[in-house]
Amino acid sequence: MSRDARWQALLELLVERGRLDVDEAAAELEVSAATIRRDFDTLAGQQMLVRTRGGAVAHGVSYELPLRYKTARRASEKQRIAEAVAGLLTPGEAVGLTGGTTTTEVARALVVRGDLAAGSPALTVVTNALNIANELAVRPQFKIVVTGGVARAQSYELVGPLADGVLGQITLDVAVLGVVAFDVVHGAAAHDEAEAAINRLLCERAERVIVAADSSKLGRRAFARICSAESVDTLVTDAAAAPETVRRFEEAGLRVVVA
After folding, report:
1. How far apart, in whole angstroms, are the C-alpha atoms of residue 38 and residue 60?
2. pTM metric for this prediction
3. What does the alpha-carbon distance between residue 63 and residue 209 come to, in Å, rounded to a whole number?
C-alpha cells in the first residue's frame, strides 16, 4: 500500500470511528506500529487529526474529510450508483452536478455513454465543482458552465454570492445531488452551510432532483440542510440499503433506484 493510500485509509477509519489506537490501525492496514506513528505525526502536522498518547482522534463529530483524501471505500457501490444516475439523463438536457465523490463518478459515467459521444451539445453540465469541470471541460460534446464563487478546499466546490448570481440566471432539467446525509424526516444535508446553500439553489432551478447516495448516507443527519425529502424525485443508492429505509423513502413519494 502506498503512503497516500495508507493516509487515506487512516483518515477514513478515523472519521468512521472517531478514535484510533496505533496498534489497532497497524493491524487494520497490515503495517508496523512505527509506520502508523509516523503517519499520525505527519497528518497531525497537516491538521488532519489530533494526536493522542497511543493514537489519534478526529477533530470533532462533524469532522469533514477533504475530498482529496476520500478514496476507494465503497468505490464499486458509487460506480454502480453513478452508472444508474447517468442512465436517467437524456441527451440534450441541462444537468446540474454538485461536488462529491459520487457525483464525480456520475461525470465519469456520462463520458463513456455512447449516445453522448457527440452532439451540439450532448449535455449541458452546470457545476460548482472544480474537479468535475476539469474532467469534463476536455470533452467537446459537453457544454460546461461553472458557477463563480470561492473554492472550498475540502470539496473543490465554489460557494458564496458569486455562485448565487450565476444560478439565478439559468434553468435546469435535472439536478444531481451528492450528499453526506439523507433522511426521510430531515431531508438531504451537507456538512457546510455555504455548500448546502448552493446545492439548494441547484435544486430550485431544476425540474427534477436526483440524490445519488450510497447506503451509508441514508437515515443520517448532517449540520446543513439542502432540501426536504419531498423535494427529491429520485434516490439512487446501492443494494446494501435496508429494505425498511427504502420503503420509507418510497412512502414519502420518491422513486428509489437500487444499483
Report:
1. 22
2. 0.78
3. 27
- pLDDT score recorded for residue 61: 40
Q: What average pLDDT score do residues 59-64 get? A: 50
Residues 6 or more apart whose Cβ sits within 8 Å of residue 83: 109, 259
> What residues does 208 pair with on adjacent strands?
174
Q: Which residues of 103-137 are buried (b: 16+ CB within 10 A; e: fewer)?
A: bbbbbbbbeeeeebeeeebbbbbbbbbbbbbebbe
Dist CA 213 CA 197 (whole Å): 19
Under a CB-based contact definition with an 8 Å cutoff, are residues 180 and 191 in contact?
yes
| Per-residue CA distances from 103 to 47, 81, 178, 212 (Å) | 27, 9, 6, 7
DSSP label of 129: B
Q: Could you give the dihedral angle defined by the CA atoms of residues 196, 126, 155 and 228, in that order, rounded to the nearest 10 degrees?
A: 20
- Return d(Cα 104, Cα 92) in angstroms, integer: 20
